[in-house]
């Protein structure tokens, strides 16, 4: 019998992290009688006087969120990382290793209106968000080794507030995932003298099996090694190392790409598609200022949990938690569905061309 990736179980390597993913396409046939997610509500008001992220509303700590008209960034009132904290005593014991952790956490509102999301905002409004990401990155990267910009969208991904927003955590150390990538990308560059993701972009453009969106500045694919059902990787095609390298044209194209990708996501199951997304690029701060970043390529990851419908999600539990990550639908099947679904017109905007 001949091997067919869409039918036969196999393992794929994620070269960015060195972790393997088990692909079991035949499992899509199994029945599901487990938990059903509550689909995200679409009928939110544009202003909620009890939501602390809305303009003019008092937050639990007594600070009044200003009446902002565009984006708005503030220090997280409940930060995971702060700057001033005692240093833990060093330890030589291999079983009880400890290291200092300092940083700062911010919240960034994308828009004053609560009932918008990136796919229902205009490309121009998304570009304002991108410009603010860069502004924040410029400021925080001068001091911190890692600036993690990320968006949790939807309660299925742990988002605690429906107002359109993201978070920025800047830290004095390289967190685990970026540290793994730093090592793997550097090793690949050492052997091939090319950034791994630049080579990957070229290969995906040749193969044309996993492409979702393609334009001169950006490539969106369901990566060969995707763990989440409709996971995507948004990769710079211009050898950008960090988000603050982007030119005006690249930012304009990025806004259009984000709008198209997130519209495709929403249209897939006709719901506000939950995900966690975030940016990765070369490390920063004084420690990395003079180190080579030649091995890095700016990219964003989208990790959406939904598998079959607006209410049936993938759980990373059991074998995934205890042994290795496993997926049902192949990355090629997921890419085909995302490629074929309309990304120009949001299902809520039906007849008009998506809010532009
Ligand atoms: P999510 O991205 O998970 O929804 O988190 C929203 C953040 O907003 C969360 O980190 C912060 C929370 O601490 N927040 C404030 O800083 N002040 C508030 O008044 C509400 C929420």
TrEMBL record:
This is Galactose-1-phosphate uridylyltransferase. One of its GO terms (cellular component) is cytoplasm. Belongs to the galactose-1-phosphate uridylyltransferase type 1 family. InterPro entries: GalP_UDPtransf1, GalP_UDPtransf1_His-AS, GalP_Utransf_C, GalP_Utransf_N, HIT-like_sf. GO terms for molecular function: UDP-glucose:hexose-1-phosphate uridylyltransferase activity; zinc ion binding. The keyword Metal-binding applies. Residues 184-349 form the Galactose-1-phosphate uridyl transferase C-terminal domain. It catalyses: alpha-D-galactose 1-phosphate + UDP-alpha-D-glucose = alpha-D-glucose 1-phosphate + UDP-alpha-D-galactose. Keywords: Carbohydrate metabolism, Galactose metabolism, Metal-binding, Nucleotidyltransferase, Transferase, Zinc. SUPFAM superfamilies: HIT-like (SSF54197). Residues 3-175 form the Galactose-1-phosphate uridyl transferase N-terminal domain. Transmembrane segments: none annotated. Pathway: Carbohydrate metabolism; galactose metabolism. One of its GO terms (biological process) is galactose catabolic process via UDP-galactose, Leloir pathway. It comes from Drosophila willistoni. Its cofactor is Zn(2+). Its EC number is 2.7.7.12.
């Amino acid at each position: 019998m001949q091997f067919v990736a869409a039918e036969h179980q196999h393992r794929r390597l994620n070269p960015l992290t060195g972790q393997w993913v088990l692909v079991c396409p035949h499992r899509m046939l199994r029945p599901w009688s487990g938990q059903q997610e509550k689909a995200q509500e679409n009928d939110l008001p544009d202003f909620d006087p009890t939501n602390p992220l809305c303009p003019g509303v008092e937050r639990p700590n007594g600070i009044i969120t200003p009446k902002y008209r565009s984006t708005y960034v503030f220090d997280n009132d409940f930060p995971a990382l702060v700057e001033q904290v005692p240093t833990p005593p060093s330890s030589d014991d291999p079983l009880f290793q400890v290291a200092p952790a300092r940083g700062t956490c911010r919240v960034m509102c994308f828009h004053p209106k609560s009932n918008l999301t990136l796919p229902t905002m205009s490309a121009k409004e998304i570009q304002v968000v991108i410009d603010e990401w860069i502004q924040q990155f410029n400021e925080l990267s001068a001091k911190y080794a890692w600036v993690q910009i990320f968006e949790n969208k939807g309660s299925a991904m742990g988002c605690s507030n429906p107002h359109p927003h993201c978070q920025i955590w800047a830290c004095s150390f390289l967190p685990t995932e970026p540290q793994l990538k730093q090592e793997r990308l550097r090793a690949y560059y050492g052997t091939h003298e090319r950034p791994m993701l630049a080579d990957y972009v070229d290969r995906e453009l040749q193969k044309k099996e996993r492409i979702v969106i393609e334009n001169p500045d950006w490539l969106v694919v369901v990566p060969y090694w995707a763990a989440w059902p409709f996971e995507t990787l948004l990769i710079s095609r211009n050898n950008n190392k960090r988000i603050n390298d982007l030119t005006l044209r690249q930012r304009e194209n990025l806004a259009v790409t984000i709008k198209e990708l997130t519209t495709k996501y929403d249209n897939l199951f006709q719901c506000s598609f939950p995900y966690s997304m975030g940016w990765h690029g070369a490390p920063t701060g004084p420690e990395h200022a003079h180190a080579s970043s030649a091995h890095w390529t700016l990219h964003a990851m989208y990790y959406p949990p939904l598998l079959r419908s607006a209410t049936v999600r993938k759980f990373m539990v059991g074998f995934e938690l205890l042994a290795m990550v496993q997926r049902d639908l192949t990355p090629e099947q997921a890419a085909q569905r995302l490629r074929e679904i309309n990304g120009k017109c949001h299902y809520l905007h039906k007849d008009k061309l998506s809010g532009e």
